[in-house]
Each structure stands twice: as structure tokens, then as C-alpha cells.
Design brief:
- About 50% of the residues lie in helices and about 10% in strands.
- The protein starts with a helix and ends with a strand.
- It has about 325 residues and is mainly α.
- The protein has one domain: Orthogonal Bundle (Cytochrome p450), CATH 1.10.630.10.
- The longest helix is centred in the middle third of the chain and has 32 residues.
- Helix 5 packs across helix 7 and helix 7 packs across helix 10.
- Strand 1 and strand 2 form a beta hairpin.
- The protein has a two-stranded antiparallel ribbon. Strands 3-6 form a two-stranded antiparallel ribbon. It has a two-stranded antiparallel ribbon with strand order 4-5.
- It is built from 14 helices and 10 strands.
- InterPro entries: Cyt_P450 (IPR001128), Cyt_P450_CS (IPR017972), Cyt_P450_E_grp-I (IPR002401), Cyt_P450_sf (IPR036396), Cytochrome_P450_monoxygenase (IPR050121).
- It comes from Smittium angustum.
- Keywords: Heme, Iron, Metal-binding, Monooxygenase, Oxidoreductase.
- One of its GO terms (molecular function) is oxidoreductase activity, acting on paired donors, with incorporation or reduction of molecular oxygen.
Length: about 325
């Protein structure tokens, strides 16, 4: 999933596919993975910033990431200057290069462009690919849910010669979409709180709860998704909660993309990827856990009675802690 997301992001952002699926990876993905871990560690222990400059492997990846972005910027600027840039659509790089900084009324500098591109590639690659990993993991733990998803996809799109488009999937795959919401609720990929500042007047939450003016507040998304006042049997994986009229209302309570004016700008792209990639894969291939897997529907939590999830670790993104062990899946082509 990560290589797929990386190819999509590079095409949309730079107008240039890095072909990480074809090549089995790309150094920019390695850069994203190590940078996500370092960002989390630096936020807790700022001194660790020095690691980026003293560990050869990290230095090499950082230099490769910077040069990757800088080369794309220089090439595009040259095409624009020589009036040779021709495209049916403006990609994100073109929008950045031609944008005016509102603070100084100047074009963005190369260093600013590099920062924006690397941030966009990192944020767009890791979050969506990890979300799809968790969705498939839930399917393997809940075979009845997986079967309903497979049946819905096959019934809605029986002609396997035609790819499933995301608009069609959004319209016709109601239950599949419900499983995506439930996966994002139970295992949101946001690994850190979402921060906001209170107003200059402060915020009165309840009669006896007042947040002082200009106070930094962090929303704990995982906690909000377990609020029993909103989510009945919150620890249970139950996609049905998102069906029907009441289910539509609950979708607004899933906060993995944030909310308000600072909602995730890449949410529509994330949905496009999820609604395109997973239905097409599920229609074409069978997925099952290997026999030696230590996880599965038969391995349940003694307290909740629910299948045990793969252990996770949270840096910037909450992902499986032991992917080499817990993310193995047997894939076979459907006849």
C-alpha cells in the first residue's frame, strides 16, 4: 500500500511517477519512514535533532530527499522559464512555484518549496497506506465482515473487465464504506493529539469546566473514538453502526481527518485511494492469514471477547509495531 500511495502522491504532486510499485520501493519511502520516527522523537526530546546530522544512514536519506525535491523544482522552473511546460492540469508543484507568499508578497524560496513538498509526500504516503493496512487487518480478524464486503463488491461490480472507479464505489459500496469508517474509528492512524488554541475569551465546555484564554488544547482522537456516550460497545468492531440515517450522523464523529477549517486537506485524496484500491484488489484476489499467524478470529481478548489486534506503535502515524510478523497475508488470484 505504501508504494502505491507514493506513486499516486508523486504523480499528483510532481507530475512524475516514481514507479515504486514497479521497482519494489524507492528511497523517498525510506526517507518518509525514518523521518516520521524522528519527528516523533524530536517532539519529545528536541536534543535528538542532532541524530539527523551524525548518523550516516539518516544523513544520506535526508540528502536524497532534499535533492529529489530540489531536482524536481529546478526542472519545472526551467520548463516554465523556457515556456516548455505543457500539461492538461496544474500539479501541486506548479501551484507552489507560482504561489505568492502572503506575508512578504514574494514567490516561495527553494527551501520553502522543498519543505512543503517533503511534508506533502510524507503526510500523503504514510497515513493512507497505513489506514488501508488496518482495514485489511480487520477483515482478516472478522471473516464474516470480510465475506459481506466481498459479496457486496461482487454483486455491485460483476464485470471484472472494468475497473471500479471511486465515484461508483462511494455510491454502491455502502457496507464497504461503513467498514472503512469503523476501521478508522477503532484504529485511527493519527498518532498524536490534534492541537488548537482556546479563544481570547476562553471556552466554557460545561457549567463547571472552563478553559482559560489562549490555552493550547490537544484532542486525543483515540479517546474520543471510545466515548461510550457516542459509541455503544465502543471496543467492538461493528460496521453496522454506520449504516442508515443514524449511521450517517455518526460519520461526523470520526475525527481521524480532524474537523473545522483546519480539517485535513488531503482527505478527499485519501478517500479516492481507499475507494479505488481496496475494492479492485478484493474483487480480484483472495486474502487470508497464514496458518502460522499468531493473530486471527480465534485469538480473542479475555476481557472484551474481541479478536486481538496487532500491536501498534505511534510515532506521527499509528501503525503495526511488528509488520514483518503481523502483516503477512496469503494472496491468491481468484479464478
Amino acid at each position: 500500500f505504501q508504494t502505491t500511495s507514493a506513486d499516486i502522491i508523486s504523480e499528483l504532486a510532481l507530475g512524475n511517477n516514481i514507479h515504486s510499485i514497479r521497482d519494489g520501493g524507492h528511497y523517498i519511502i525510506d526517507f518518509v519512514n525514518i523521518e516520521m520516527q524522528l519527528m516523533a522523537m524530536r517532539s519529545a526530546i528536541p536534543f535528538l535533532t542532532i541524530l539527523s546530522f551524525i548518523i550516516p544512514k539518516i544523513m544520506k536519506l535526508r540528502i536524497q530527499g532534499i535533492n529529489f525535491s530540489l531536482d524536481a523544482i529546478k526542472e519545472r522552473k526551467k520548463l516554465i522559464e523556457e515556456n516548455r511546460y505543457k500539461s492538461k492540469r496544474d500539479d501541486i508543484l506548479h501551484m507552489y512555484i507560482t504561489a505568492i507568499n502572503s506575508t512578504n508578497q514574494k514567490l516561495l524560496s527553494d527551501s520553502e518549496l522543498i519543505s512543503e513538498l517533503l511534508l506533502m509526500i510524507g503526510a500523503g504516503t504514510d497515513t493512507t497506506s497505513t489506514t488501508m493496512t488496518w482495514i485489511l487487518h480487520f477483515y482478516m480478524l472478522y471473516p464474516d465482515v470480510y465475506k459481506k464486503v466481498v459479496d457486496e463488491i461482487n454483486d455491485a461490480f460483476p464485470d471484472k473487465s472494468k475497473p471500479i472507479r471511486h465515484q461508483e464505489a462511494r455510491k454502491n459500496l455502502v457496507y464497504f464504506t461503513a467498514t472503512v469508517y469503523e476501521s478508522m474509528r477503532l484504529q485511527p492512524v493519527s498518532g498524536s493529539p490534534t492541537y488548537r488554541m482556546s479563544s481570547e475569551e476562553g471556552v466554557l465546555l460545561e457549567e463547571n469546566i472552563f478553559i482559560p484564554p489562549n490555552t493550547e488544547m490537544g484532542l486525543f482522537i483515540q479517546g474520543a473514538h471510545m466515548d461510550e456516550d457516542i459509541w455503544k460497545n465502543s471496543k467492538s468492531f461493528n460496521p453496522d453502526r454506520f449504516l442508515g440515517e443514524e449511521g450517517e450522523k455518526l460519520k461526523k464523529e470520526v475525527l481521524v481527518f480532524g474537523a473545522g477549517v483546519r480539517i485535513c486537506p488531503g482527505r478527499n485524496l485519501a478517500w479516492l485511494e481507499i475507494l479505488t484500491i481496496l475494492p479492485n484488489l478484493i474483487r480480484k484476489y483472495e486474502f487470508k492469514l497464514p496458518e502460522e499467524s499468531i493473530l486471527g478470529p480465534q485469538h480473542v481478548d479475555e476481557i472484551t471477547g474481541e479478536p486481538i489486534l496487532a500491536k501498534s506503535r505511534a510515532y506521527i502515524v499509528t501503525a503495526p509495531k511488528y509488520p514483518q510478523r503481523d502483516c503477512n497475508i496469503v494472496i491468491s488470484h481468484k479464478i
